[in-house]
Amino acid sequence: MNAATIIAIIVIAAILFFAVRYIYKEKKKGKTCIGCPYADSCPRHRQNGAACGSTEQHNMNIR
Amino acid sequence: MELAYAMNKNSAGTVIKNESLGTAAGNMTLLDAEPGQTYIIKEINTDDDEMNSFLFRLGCYQGEPITLISKKKKSCIVVIKDGRYNLDKMLSEAIII
Amino acid sequence: MRIAFAGNPNSGKTTMYNALTGRNEKIGNWGGVTVGSKEFQLKKEFAGDKEVIAVDLPGAYSMSPFTPEEGITSEYVRTANPDAIVNIVDATNLSRSLFFTTQLLELGIPVVVALNKTDINEKEGTKIDVNKLSAKLNCPVFETVSTENKGLAEMIAKAISLAGTTQKAPYLQADIDLHDKNAVDAEDRKRYSFVNGIVSDVETRKTLSAETTSADKVDGILTNPIAGILVFAVVMWGVFWVSQAWLGPLVADWLVGWIETFQGWVAGQLENSPAILSALLADGIVGGVGAVVGFLPLVMVMYFLIALLEDCGYMARVSAVMDPIFKRVGLSGKSVIPVVIGTGCGIPAIMACRTIRDERERRATSMLTTFIPCGAKIPVIALFAGAFFNGAGWVSTLSYFLGLVLIFLGALLIKGITGYKYRKSFFIMELPKWKAPSLKFAFKSMMERAKAYIIKAATIILICNTVVQIMQTFDWHFQVVEEGAENTSILASIASPFAILLIPLGFGVWQLAAAAITGFIAKENVVGTLAVVYALTSFIDTEELAMTGGANTVAATMGLTSVTALAYLFFNLYTPPCFAAIGAMNSEMKSRGWLWGAIGLQLGTGYTIAFLINQFGTLFTEGHFAAGFVPGLIAEACMVAAVVLIGKRVRAHFDEQYQLHKASKAAKATA
C-alpha cells in the first residue's frame, strides 16, 4: 500500500462523506430535489407553506 | 358614471366609435369591431361571475372604453386602461360593445 | 419588523425585493412569475441597525382573489399584520394599479407607494404629479426604478419609519352586505371612479396608450397563428443552436480538455494502486462527474438565453399564440406557461399547473409538461448530438418540438380517455411592454443555475456514479469482475432483464439499459453512467471523435447506429422524468389513478417513439425492419389495448356518475 493509495482512499471517503452529508442536510431542510435550479423558489419547499401549499389551493372557489 | 366617461376622453383621447353611431349599430362583440377604434363596453357576458369580476378589476366593465388594436380569427389584442391584453375568441365574444 | 411588497402582477415587486435583499429570485417580464410568498432580511445599507424582513408576494389586481396566487397576497396582508406595506405601482398603468392601492390603504397598515418603472414614463413623456398623488392618497409616494436601484433607499427608509403608525384611508368602502353581488359591484364602481378622478388629476400623457405603435405591429405578427409559431420555432432553434452547436461547445471543448488532463493525472498517480481504486476515483468520480460537468457551458449558455427571453417580454406573446392550439386538444390556454417554464426544470412547471382552473386540464397538463426537455436533459441531448450527429443544433430543436407534438397528442389521448366535457374556457394574457433584457440579470440567473448544476453533479450524480462503478466492478459474490466477463457484474445482471425489453428499440444492451434506469434519479445520470460503463469522457469533443473515426468509433463502442442513437435519445427524453418530478406530479394530481396513468403514458410514449424511430429508421436506411419487430409490435398492441380498456372503464365510471342513482345501483347489483 503506497501513499497514493492511502490518499486516494481518504479522498474518496471524504468526497462521498460530504456528498451524503450535503444531501442529508438538504433533505432535512425539506428540499427534496437536490441541486434543482429552482429549489429556492420552488413552491413545494416553502417554509411558510401553509400560506400556499396545504390549503385548498387547487380549488378556485374564492372564500 | 359621468366622471368615468369624462375620463375616457381624457385617457383614451380617440373618438369613441359606437357612441357616435348611437345605438344604431346594435350590439356587436369585439370580434366585429374595427382595429384601431375605441369603443364603450355595453355589457360583459361571460356567464362566469369570477371571470366578470376579474375583468372588472382590470378596468374592463360596462361603460369603460376598450380599444381594439388588432384582431385575428381566434383572438384579439385590446387596450383596457393603459394595459394591452390578448383575449381569446370566447372572451372577445363575451364583451359586447 | 416585516414589510410586505404588494402590487399588480408584473409591476416589478420581485425585482425590487431582489435589489433590497440581495436575493436572486426568479423574475420575468410577464404577470404571474411569483406564485408563492418569499421573505428575506433587508440589506444593511437599507435597513440600518434594525432587523427588517421584506416579504415578496405574488401579484394581485385586488383584495378579492381570482387565482390562487392572488389569494396568497390578500390573505397575507389581511391576516399576517405586516408592520408596513410597500405598494408597488406600475407607473405606466396608474389607472389600473390604484384600484388595489385604495384597498390596501383601507387596511390601516401604513402604506408607502413606490411608483415603479418611472423610467418608461420619462421615455414616453407621461408625467405624474407625485406630490398631488401623495396628498390625494394620504400616503407617501416615491418615484422608483427598481432595475436601477433608483429611489429605493428613500422609499424603504420612509416605510421603516412609518411602521407601527396607522394609515388613514382616502377612500372608505361603504358598509354594505358583502354577499349582495349588486351592492359589491356598485361599490367597486364607485371605487373605480374615485381612482379615475385621481388619475385624471395627477397624470398627463404625451403618448396615448390606445394609439397603435410599432410595438403593436410586432405583436400583431408574433400573435399571428402562422407567423407567430414560425418565429417561435426560429427563436427556439436559435437558442439551441447558439447554446449547443456554437458558443456552448466552444467553451465546453476547452473545459473538457482540462477535465481530461485532470483525470489522466489522477489515473497516473494511482498507477501502482489497486485497479478498483483507480476505477472508482479516476473513472467513476472524476470521469463520470466530469462528463456531466463538461456539459455545463452548454447548459449555462442556454439558461442565459432563456433568461434574456423571459426578461424581454416575449414569453407572454408565446402563450398568446399557442393558446388556440392548446384549446383544440382540450388543454387550457394557461397550459402554455408550464410548458414554457418546463424548458428550465420540470418541477416548477408541474407546480405552475396550479393556476389552471379545471381539474382535468390541470392534471393533464402536469402529466404532459415534462415532455419538454428540461435543463437536465440538455447534457443527454448534447451528448448524442455531439457524438452521432456532428454536434448538430437541430437535434435539440427537434427534441423540443417533438416534445410539443407529444404534448398535443397526449392531450388528445387524455381527452379521448376521459371523455371531454365541453366547458367555457377563457384566456386573457397581459402583453407587457417590451424591454431591453438586462444582461446583468441574465448573467446572475445563469450563475445561480450553474451553481445548482455543480452542486447536483457533486452530490447526487457523484454518488450514483460511484454506486454504478462499484456495481460494475463486482459480481454478486463481491469478487472483482474479470476482464472479458463484464456480463457477470451486479450492474449487468440487474440491467439485463430490462435490456431484453429494449431489443425492439434497437438498444438492448445492459449498459444502455442501466444508463436509462439511473436516469430516473436525475437525467444527467444517463451521461454519467454511459461515461462510467464505457469509460468515455470525450463525448462532446467532436474533433477528437472525428480523428478517431467519428461516429463509427462511438457506434462501435456503444453498439449504436445513428438511427438507434436517436431512438435511445428520445427514449430517455420522453420516458418519465426524474423521481423528483414524479413526486411533484403526485402532490399536484392528488390521485393515484392519474399518477399511474401519467407514468404509464410517459413510459408508453418513450417506448413507442423509440420503437417507431428504430424500426422505420432501420427500414429506411437498411431496407429491412430491425430486430425484435414482432415482439415490439406485440408490446405496442398491449399498450393500445390497455389504453382502450382504461378509456372504457373511465367512461363507464363517468356515465355512472352522471346517470341517475338507480342506474348505478343496478349496475352494481349485476356486477
Summarize the SSE layout with pairings:
The complex is a heterotrimer of chains A (63), B (97) and C (671).
Chain A: H1 3-29
Chain B: H1 2-12, H2 17-21, E1 38-40, E2 43-44, H3 49-58, E3 65-71, E4 75-80, E5 83-88, H4 89-94, E6 95-96
Antiparallel strand pairs in B: 1-3, 2-6, 3-4, 4-5
Chain C: E1 2-7, H1 13-21, E2 38-41, H2 44-47, E3 53-56, H3 68-79, E4 84-90, H4 94-105, E5 111-116, H5 118-124, E6 127-128, H6 130-137, E7 141-143, H7 152-162, H8 181-202, E8 203-204, H9 214-222, H10 227-269, H11 275-293, H12 296-312, H13 314-328, H14 336-341, H15 346-351, H16 359-368, H17 378-388, H18 394-418, E9 428-430, H19 439-473, H20 490-501, H21 510-518, H22 524-534, H23 542-547, H24 551-558, H25 562-574, H26 579-589, H27 592-622, H28 629-658, H29 661-670
Parallel strand pairs in C: 1-3, 1-4, 4-5, 5-7
Antiparallel strand pairs in C: 2-3, 6-8
Helix pairs in contact in C: 4-8, 6-8, 10-11, 10-12, 10-18, 11-19, 11-22, 12-19, 16-18, 16-27, 17-25, 19-22, 20-21, 21-22, 25-27, 26-27, 27-28
Distance between the termini of chain B: 17 Å
Helix content of chain B: 25-40%
Structural class of chain C: mainly alpha
Portion in beta strands of chain B: 25-35%
- The fraction of residues in strands of chain C falls at 5-15%
The number of E-state strands of chain C comes to: 9
Low-confidence stretches of chain B: 1-14, 19-24
Mean pLDDT of chain C: 86
Spatial ordering of strands, largest sheet of chain C? 2-3-1-4-5-7
Strand order of the largest sheet of chain B: 1-3-4-5
Shape field of chain B:
globular
